[in-house]
Amino acid sequence: MLSNYSIRSKLTLCLGLFALALLALLATLAAVTKTDSAAFQTLLADRVVPLRDLKIVADQYAVAIVDASHKARNGNLTMAKAAEQVRAGRGQIDAQWKAYRATYIAEREAVLADTAEKRMHAADRKVAELQTALDRGDRAALDRIVVSDLYAAIDPVSEALSALVEEQIVVATQVSEDALTFDRWAMIVSFATALVAGAVWLFALMISRNAIIRPIGTLADTMEELAGQTNDTEIPYQQQRDEIGRMARACEIFRAAAIERTRAEEEAAQTQQQVTAALRDAIAAISAGDLSRDILYPFPADYEPVRQDFNAALLRLRGLIGAVAASARGITTGTGEIAVATEDLARRTEGNSASLEQTSAAITVMGARLKGIADSATRTLTTAGDASRSVGHGREVAAAASAAMARVADSARGIDGVIEGLDKIAFQTRVLAMNAAVEAGRAGEAGRGFAVVADLVSALAMRAEEEAKRAREQLTVTQSEVVSAVDMVARVDAALVQIAGATDQVHTLLDSMSSENRAQADAISEIATAVSTMDHATQQNAAMVEETSAAARSLRTEVTTLNGQAGQFHIGPAPAARSAAQSRVLH
């Protein structure tokens, strides 16, 4: 039945059943989770929180009211502090009780809560009296209320609160047991759902294996046999109406096509064998040197172009062999002429090589001489440079001498001023001596000795004037000689300037000559190199001519051999079919 459904439908069925089982399992788990969450919220909001509120109410009665009143009686707490603590406890009790009453309360719990609330109202009246006594500081009233009324009012409240706490514990226990019972049933349902999902998975696996995987594997094996040229294999599953049936019917078409292809290949092999035999006979004739055997009988239509191309190629080969034989005879004549011409060219090339060798030797000698002249000019240029530097040094010495003479002239003029000063001093000294002599004469006998001294000083001053005059005359002669010496030094410097100019011109001319000689030597060297290159090229040409001559002789021998080998082929007369083929090839 499943064989009539497609693979897609089969897979969809399997996946759908498995998905339904999974959804059922997930729904069960979701219900369990939701129930557990609700039970937890119930325990927390409706049982645990009320327990906390009831505990706070009971603690406030025990601590904020009873304990504070006892501490006030014992003096451990002031009346005002105790009143404040009682007031805070009453507020806390009222707030927590209202919070408790706002939670969910069951019917039985509501009855207990109403009872507790009535007792709390009764106790609150006594607590109010306690509050008033504490506010007034009335210790007698405080003692009376604590001893007689307080416990009688609060104990019933504590009992009612304890009953409420017990009820909370009972209800919480019941909620927990209900949740556990539901969890057990949910686990059973989940296990059953998992078993169903496993069964669905096994069913889907069985369907996939029997209806999909196994047929596909069988078809794969069948296709491998068809690929191995086993065409007698039966194709299964052709009757199925799914994709596997379509694949099986396609394989059957491939098998029929393979059988037809095998038959066609056998017929083609027979035809090819006949064509190969004809070509083999024709090629054997060509190998034996017979180029006159065309393939005359026609080939099948597919191979007829091969026969025509073979006959055309054979026709061209006959023409080529004939042309090669004719060309070989012409090449034989040409190579003989080339050999004679190359031998003549070799002799003339050898003569040119000898002439170039002599020319190269002569140019080499000329270059060596020009190089020697250039070296001599270079040395002369160096000597002229040394002379120019010596003249420059002489000019420097002459300039120094001229400067020294100028300094001597300046010193002479200074000495002349000194002598003139001494002359003036001597004149003044003589005038003073004359005045002293006059004064001594006036003094009479007492100034006689002074008069003698004045005469001596006057005589000394006259001698000083005479010596100063002689020194001036000698200095004048010295200045004249110094002027003459300075003029001679200037003339020597002018002569040295002319010598330096001439030396520079000689240096320039020698430098130009040296450059020209070097340029000529370089040119001669280049010419010698070029002649040497030409000589080398001529020698190479001679060698190449000899090689060409040898190659021409070798070519003549090879052409003679080629002519003999071409003569081994039998071309024969051209039949009508050959002429038609040739005409077809040419056109």
TrEMBL record:
One of its GO terms (cellular component) is plasma membrane. Residues 327-556 form the Methyl-accepting transducer domain. Residues 573-587 have a biased composition (Low complexity). Residues 254-281, 454-481 form a coiled coil. InterPro entries: HAMP_dom (IPR003660), MCP_chemotaxis (IPR051310), MCPsignal_dom (IPR004089), Tar_rcpt_lig-bd (IPR003122). The chain crosses the membrane at residues 185-207. It is found in: Cell membrane. Keywords: Cell membrane, Chemotaxis, Coiled coil, Membrane, Methylation, Transducer, Transmembrane, Transmembrane helix. It comes from the Bacteria. It is a multi-pass membrane protein. GO terms for biological process: chemotaxis; signal transduction. Residues 210-263, 270-322 form the HAMP domain. Its main location: membrane. Residues 566-587 are annotated as: Disordered. PROSITE patterns: CHEMOTAXIS_TRANSDUC_2 (PS50111), HAMP (PS50885). SMART domains: HAMP, MA. The keyword Manganese does not apply. It holds the Pfam family MCPsignal. PANTHER family: METHYL-ACCEPTING CHEMOTAXIS PROTEIN 3, PROTEIN ICFG. Belongs to the methyl-accepting chemotaxis (MCP) protein family. This is Methyl-accepting chemotaxis protein. It comes from Sphingomonas hengshuiensis.
